[in-house]
Design goal:
Keywords: Carbohydrate metabolism, Glycogen biosynthesis, Glycogen metabolism, Glycosyltransferase, Transferase. Residues 245-696 form the Glycosyl hydrolase family 13 catalytic domain. The active site is at residues 402, 455. By secondary structure, this protein is an alpha+beta fold. The protein has an eight-stranded parallel β-barrel with strand order 17-18-21-24-25-26-27-28. It has a five-stranded antiparallel β-sheet with strand order 29-30-31-35-33. It starts with a helix and ends with a strand. The mean pLDDT is 95.
Length: 722
């Protein structure tokens, strides 16, 4: 028996196109061969039955020419062995390679920035025949096949061709339509068979299913062209940016526990967030993941929006609606690690491929997850293309990159002897640093105005500085220091706060070393850390007053703003991914008043340049008095670009009203309150300053003029010159 035929029959042929399909014969005729293990008989439509090669499931027909005697891609009919039914098919082995040589070269170089358009599955037509092109990177293996319901999950039926030494396997299968389920069956070099979902699958089925799905490649009819054009000119350093962070699956749920769909979130979430005057939402990861409790941070389908909330087109429509409503969309992106689930990326060929082979560099022991091999071109290509994919295909306005610190340090959360140093003996992950710099350079090069934001918790320098001057190239960085210090302060009993006053003021030492976001994120309201409201000391009234005051300080301090869902109405319980937010609390005035104060803080922040123009620049901030620790009072000025754009802010962190409290002021004009968190409208005691606050020609604190004000208890005042 022919060796090619034996290898095809056994499912070990690395390139079945060498034997199957059309092949010339020495006598000038041609032979058409097909391999159908499930078939009792096969015929070429219009030319009669094919001959079964003895002892095999291979059939052949000798014809005079693949173009004269039969079409280049002849229609076949085959009868299944079990039921005897007849089925139509077109032999996939009559089609030439579809992945171009330039694509293969760029993939191998790690410079194919649109790899998702080449790899994965794509419903296309070739020579007028409709079907799906499958392509996957799986180097150093003996065979890769596409399996699914269409071939009874039999890996012998549709083995792919390998494209030289690239490790890329491909096949065009006629008749495979949008929505078809599939996986890859891989016969590795050790003769072990592994079955995997497609790393580049753009759609998957609802968990607990783990199968990939042929996506719909029909372009979405986007309505946000005006938004995209404006985004390209987005002067984000000098514009307001307040972010509502949310987990789509637990913002709201149906009574029976079902998730809200993207369409339902469009109807409910968008008007809710825009009413609160936020500029952006940030979605916790929406890439496909098997475990709800991972919150999306253990990704198994990097290119597939999770099926929990609908189709990829449903997600596009949601983002489109956000943009039309004037709301930006940021997305959590997780290139730092991936789970060990055996159906996905882990040991993709039965051996480490996407992860580093040495567990001292390839595994996060704390998280039980694997670390990408950032030094491998094809892996780097996978991730950089993925960053571009979400922006290009879904019009995402920015990526918040998770766990950057774990990528930067080889000894991250490791003891001595549990990590390998770099080639210079250091702890820096040189490959990951190069990857982050390249990712940021590529994203900003393709998409001006799109943001990249690092969750980076160490003192690594120049995270949000350009690559050209030695930075990592991120637009912004989460200010974890501000968050930790200020939460520690506000949790103190007010009588003790005077001993911790430096926690409020220390951030000004480094506030402009990076472009900072001030995060009050999901991580701060889980794992027994208490909800934002439950962190607050004192009785019921004081807890709400403290929270209103703390949010005012959040907006008074330079930096972009971020708040996690539920915190905007003072949820008492910690966030629980299995439940929706405690929306019933909004029926109580004390809770609803928190939304009122945030709505007005966002409005001031958006409308007044003094509160946002110099978020990253020391010119926008000036202490009036930061030393009044005995009374736990701060007073400061926020400046805009225009000298007239000034706002005076006073914060009283004790429950004691301060009467005739004098501060120096920069102008001789009168002042008025534009926001008082103790207003009865916000549930306060309505202590404050009615009408105009006259300026006195009394030098104070280095200013030629001063004012006397009443400071409400546990409250903030925002004063503007009249």
């Amino acid at each position: 028996m022919n060796e090619n035929l034996i290898r095809i029959q056994q499912g070990t042929h690395h390139d079945p196109f060498d034997w199957l399909g059309w092949h010339p014969l020495p006598d000038g005729n041609w032979v058409l061969r097909t391999f159908m293990p499930a078939a009792e008989a096969v015929e070429v439509v219009g030319h009669g039955l094919m001959t079964r090669l003895e002892g095999t499931d291979c059939f052949e027909a000798k014809l005079s020419s693949p173009t004269d005697a039969a079409p280049s891609h002849p229609a076949l009919r085959w009868q299944d062995k079990q039921a005897g039914n007849w089925h139509d098919a077109v032999c996939p082995y009559t089609f030439p390679p579809q992945v171009g040589d330039l694509d293969l070269h760029l993939l191998g170089q790690g410079r194919h920035h649109h790899a998702w358009k080449v790899l994965g599955s794509h419903a296309i037509s070739v020579d007028g025949v409709a079907g799906t092109l499958f392509a996957v990177w799986a180097p150093a293996v003996k065979r890769v096949s596409v399996i699914g319901d269409f071939n009874a999950w039999d890996g012998r039926r549709h083995p792919m061709r390998v494209r030289g030494e690239t490790g890329v396997w491909e096949i065009f299968i006629p008749g495979i339509a949008v929505g078809t389920s599939y996986k890859y069956e891989i016969l590795n070099r050790h003769d072990a068979i592994v079955v995997k979902t497609d790393p580049y699958a753009q759609q998957m089925f609802m968990r607990p299913e783990t199968t990939s799905r042929v996506p719909n490649d029909v372009p979405h009819p986007w309505q946000d062209s005006a938004w995209i054009a404006t985004r390209e000119q987005f002067d984000w350093q000098h514009q307001p940016m307040s972010v509502y962070e949310l987990h789509p699956g637990s913002w709201r749920k149906h009574p029976d526990g079902r998730f809200y769909s993207w369409a339902e979130l469009t109807e409910t979430l968008i008007p809710y967030v825009t009413d609160l005057n936020y500029t952006h939402i940030e979605l916790m990861p929406v890439a496909e993941h098997p475990l709800d409790e991972s919150w999306g941070y253990q990704v198994s389908g990097y290119y597939a929006p999770t099926a929990r909330y609908g189709t990829p087109d449903d997600f596009r429509a949601f983002v489109d609606a956000c943009h039309v409503a004037g709301l930006g969309v940021l997305l959590d992106w997780v290139p730092a690690h991936f789970p060990k689930d055996d159906f996905a990326l882990a040991k993709f060929t039965g051996e480490p491929l996407y992860e580093h082979a040495d567990p001292r560099r390839g595994e996060h022991q704390d998280w039980g997850t694997l670390i990408f091999d950032f030094g491998r071109n094809e892996v780097k290509n996978f991730l950089i293309s993925n960053a571009l994919y979400w922006i290009d295909e879904f019009h995402i306005d920015g990526l918040r990159v998770d766990a950057v610190a774990s990528m930067l340090y080889l000894d991250y959360s490791r003891k001595a002897g549990e990590w390998l140093p770099n080639q210079y003996g250091g702890r820096e992950n040189i490959e990951a640093i190069a990857f982050l710099r390249e990712m940021n350079t590529v994203v900003h090069g393709y998409f001006p105005g799109v943001l990249t934001i690092a969750e980076e918790s160490t003192s690594w320098p120049a995270v949000s500085r350009p690559v050209e001057i030695g930075g990592l190239g991120f637009s912004m960085k989460w200010n974890m220091g501000w968050m930790n210090d200020n939460l520690k302060y506000i949790e103190q009993n007010p009588v003790h706060r005077k001993y911790h006053h430096n926690l409020l003021t220390f951030s000004q030492i480094y506030a402009y070393s990076e472009n900072f976001v001030l995060p009050l994120s999901h991580d701060e309201v889980v794992h027994l850390k208490h909800s934002m409201l439950d962190k607050m000391p004192g009785d019921y009234w004081q807890a709400f007053a403290n929270l209103r005051l703390f949010y005012a300080w959040h907006y008074a301090h330079p930096g972009k703003k971020l708040l996690f869902m539920g915190s905007e109405f003072g949820q008492w319980a910690e966030w629980n991914v299995k439940k929706e937010l405690d929306w019933a609390l909004c029926q109580f005035p004390a809770h609803d008043s928190i939304r009122h104060v945030l709505r007005d803080l966002n409005r001031l922040y958006r409308d007044l340049p003094a509160l946002h123009h110099y978020d990253f620049d020391g010119r926008g901030f000036q202490w009036i008095d930061c030393h009044d620790s005995d009374q736990s009072v701060l007073s400061l000025i926020r400046h805009g670009e225009n000298p007239d754009d000034q706002l005076i802010i006073l914060l009283n962190f004790t429950p004691v009203p301060r009467y005739a409290y004098r501060i120096g002021v920069p102008t001789a004009a009168s002042y008025r309150e534009v926001l008082n968190t103790d207003s009865e409208y916000y549930g306060g005691s309505n202590c404050g300053n009615a009408g105009m606050i006259p300026v006195q020609p009394h030098a104070w604190m280095g200013f030629e003029h001063s004012v006397e004000v009443t400071l409400p208890p546990l409250a903030a005042l925002f004063l503007q010159a009249c």
